[in-house]
Specification:
- The protein has about 160 residues and is mainly alpha-helical.
- It has one domain (about 5-155).
- It has helices at about 5-40, 45-75, 85-110, 120-155.
- Helix 1 runs antiparallel to helix 2, helix 2 (about 45-75) runs antiparallel to helix 3 and helix 3 (about 85-110) packs antiparallel against helix 4.
- The longest helix has about 40 residues, at about 120-155.
Length: about 160
């Protein structure tokens, strides 16, 4: 991979990480305040939902850090090693946690509070995206494992 590509990807990771951090620290509390102001009946759920959203965003940050770590493996030409699969495993784990958090909030919103609307639709989209991401990362982990095995066999031949 070219140095420019790795540098551009790292720049994107920094921007995304900063944006997610901004969302966790500033946007979530402000949005929660506005939701409580408009719908006082959900005031009791303000902090549990803020914490769940912050944890889901932390999962995004884990994926970004793991991507950075994998880029370092690529740059050092160490991507085809058993160690590299750890980064993908962290991504899968973060995706599963994000999906579980999203599902828990969605079920609570639908069946306990009995609310729906755009928030529920957004949560469904987030859940679908999380599940697809996890499945994609499982495929990528399998491909990385196969490529690592082939790389090791090729090194033995050479």
């Amino acid at each position: 991979m070219q140095k420019f590509t790795i540098l551009a990807l790292r720049g994107g990771i920094v921007v995304l990480f900063a944006g997610v951090l901004f969302g966790q620290v500033l946007i979530l509390p402000i949005a929660a305040d506005e939701a409580v102001r408009e719908f006082p009946e959900v005031a009791a759920f303000r902090w549990p939902y803020v914490i769940a959203a912050a944890l889901a965003l932390a999962c995004v940050q884990v994926v970004l850090v793991a991507t950075w770590w994998l880029l370092t493996r690529v740059q050092r030409r160490e991507i085809f090693s058993a160690r590299a699969s750890r980064g993908v495993a962290w991504m899968v784990g973060a995706g599963v946690v994000a999906a579980a958090l999203t599902l828990a909030v969605m079920l609570h919103l639908q069946f306990v509070i009995q609310a729906g609307g755009p928030a529920l639709l957004g949560l469904m989209g987030a859940l679908a995206g999380s599940v697809v991401f996890v499945l994609l990362m499982l495929v990528m982990r399998s491909l990385l494992g196969t490529a690592t095995t082939m790389h090791e066999e090729l090194l033995e031949v050479v």
